[in-house]
Every structure is written in structure tokens, then in C-alpha cells.
Amino acid sequence: MNTESMYTALGITPAVHRFGEDVLAGLRARFDEIDRVAEYNQCKVIGAMQKNRVDATHFAATTGYGYNDAGRDNLERVYADCFHTEAALVRPQITCGTHALTVALSANLLPGDTLLSPVGAPYDTLEEVIGIRPSACSLKEYGVHYRQVDLLPDYGFDYPAIEQALRGGVKLVTIQRSKGYATRPTFSVQQIGELIAFCKRVDPNVICMVDNCYGEFVETIEPSDLGADMIVGSLIKNPGGGLAPIGGYICGRRDLVDRCAYRLSAPGLGQEVGANLGLMPAFYQGFFLAPTVTAGALKGAVFAANVYERLGFRCIPNATEPRHDIIQCVELGSPERMVAFCKGIQAAAPVDSYVDPIPWAMPGYDSEVIMAAGAFVQGSSIELSADGPIRPPYAVYFQGGLTWYHAKLGILMSLQKLVDAGLVTLDQLEEK
Length: 432
What we know:
Largest sheet: 7 strands, mixed
Strand order of the largest sheet: 1-7-6-5-4-2-3
CATH architecture of the largest domain: 3-Layer(aba) Sandwich
CATH topology of the largest domain: Aspartate Aminotransferase, domain 2
Number of strands: 12
Order of helices and strands: HHHHEHEHEHEHEEEHHEEHEEEHH
CATH class of the largest domain: Alpha Beta
CATH superfamily of the largest domain: Type I PLP-dependent aspartate aminotransferase-like (Major domain)
Number of domains: 2
Number of helices: 13
Shape: globular
């Protein structure tokens, strides 16, 4: 049986498969560059592990208080060395990226302090954390003020407005690297570095925190290399490599990370407590695999943009733009196309492939959200998934794929479902 026959057996018609192969033929140079970045980052991770003398004893499970957990403590040194920071907090007790950000913000903002977002509105789940949407235990409820400077029409930074906001007194600046459910471009590490440098010139004491979710290992440098005081992320995205079943990280200045540890556990306890519960092998090996897994996800994103842009849909980033995270946004223009696309991603999954995703009222979001995620780890965004709020411009956000080949199948299946539903015609494929 040849490869095309295997795709046919999985439900991909020859016409859709041929269309995909035609698109793929023009992407070899892009894929080679992605592999070069992955190779660099793989060496960086291995170097950090070797420097910290990782050995089999670091994989031992701990329970209870977790005192003297050598594996946990060494993993945090590995993260700190890899991301070039003074300290790191890497814990299964951090449940997700939003939780990691909440810990970092609440640990380093006191009543009366001001938080500034100079990159527009934050990701949906942070609205309740900050208090933009009322919620119990929000930062607003505890007396933290919030300011926001929107991006310019061309998605550039509004530096005069940012300077004015900073001169009004700001304790912490939060910079979201990825686009979230917005349709703006993802910021490059270089762009983030320039913004941080500007903020530090205006106020050298301001804390600059970067929400690094979806961006780790996409470039050869991280925001911490260009002045970020803290970078924050989730282990069920890029750095967990698809193996970490839970967790988050905070890397940065030691004093800031120490406060995060006190907030996560308790004042006076900090990093000394928090058993690893037998998760160290997955955390270490996932981090080891992360550069390669991220590369596969990037290839899938580039492929998706080229497929859907050729069919006339707006893609962010577009088919040729450089990549700064693993997310590919496709504006599909209707709820029906969003549902069909997500059905295709679900149908291509190794887990729950027989399930049809439907829009639902997901906690933390103000619109119904459709989510396709047939993942080994529930909610893992480094595994193949697609989701989006059911609201104009009806954009779906595709990301992940533990292997490039699975990402490829997912995109082909999403197109197949659109064809099957009559939302993309075979004539369109032939014409292109």
C-alpha cells in the first residue's frame, strides 16, 4: 500500500491529497529553516541538561511535602540555564498557563500597584484574573489598578501613549507574545525586546513580564535574552514536548521568582515544598523533545497557511511571513466553516477521533467556543488542536502536532470536511 492509499483509508480523497502535495512541494526551503532552528534549540536544551548533570536519580518520585526533591530542584536549574535567567519555578502544582500568569502577577503586585498592558487587550482568560470582567479574587478586587494601551492600526506599539502610561506610575508591564483570540500578528522576540528596552528607559524599575505561551523554541532566542524580568508559560504547550501531563513555569529574576514561589505555596515555604508526584521523567523528557516537537507544529502551521491562503481565506500569519509562535489563525467567515474545520481536526486525532466537537460555554470566555482536541493530555496545545470563539470574523486557531505528519493529516482532514459539507468545492481545488 502506498502513502496516498493510506490517506484514502483515513478518509482523504485523492483530490484533497493531491492539492496538499502540490502546496507542500513549495515549502521545502521553509521546512529546512525550521529544522535549523530546532537543531540549535536542541543543542541548547542538551547543554543545559549536561551542565546540571542530569542523572537517573533525578527521576525519582516524591510525595508529601517534597522536601529535598533533587529532581525537581535540578529541573528548575535546567530551565533557568536554558532560558538564561537567574531562577525558575517549574511545578505540576501550576495547573495551566493562566494559573502561571496569575501566580506571577499576584505575587509581584500589591494593593495600589498598577499593571500595564502596552499590547492591547489580554487573552480572554486573563480578563477575570485582572478584573476587566468582574470575578471573585481578581487583581482588581485586591486593589490592583489596570491600564491598557492599544496597538496602532498597523499593529505597532503606541510608544507616546505607553510612555504617558508609564509616567503615571506602573509597577509591572505584561506583554503577551502570542495573539490569543485576536487577529493581530504575534510579536517577534526582537519586537518584544525593543518594547522592553523602551519601557526600561522610561522607568528602569518597572518589571517586564512576558506571557511566553506558544512561543518557546520557535526562535533561537527567548524574551529573557532581551531584557524580560519574567517569562511565563505552560508545560502542556511547547516546553512540555507533549509528555508533561500538567504544569507551568516562571523563569526570571531570583527575587521575582522567589515571590512567585511564596504565592504558589506559602510565605516562608516557597520552593522548598511541592512534591513531584512521579512526574519528573515526563518533565525532563518532554523538555528534551520540545525543540523537535515545536518544529513539527511549526511545519503544520506553515502548511495550513499555504493551503487556506491558496483557497482565498485570510491567514494570520500569512503564507510567507516569519513565525514567532505555533498558532495559525484562519479567518473562515462563517460559523459553519469553523465547525467543519474543527470536525476535521478532531477526525484526524488518535484520541476521540469519533467525536464531533460542538460550540459550548467554556469557562473563562465571554463567547461560545468550539474546540477540537483529540489529545493524549487533555487540553494540551502542543498536540494537534483547533479552537476559536463563535464570533466574527469566525476565525479558527490551529496549533500543535506532536509530529509533522499528524499535523499534515489534520490540515488535510479539515479541508476534506469543508469539501464534504459543500463549503469548499472541488472546482476551487482544481482551479488553484
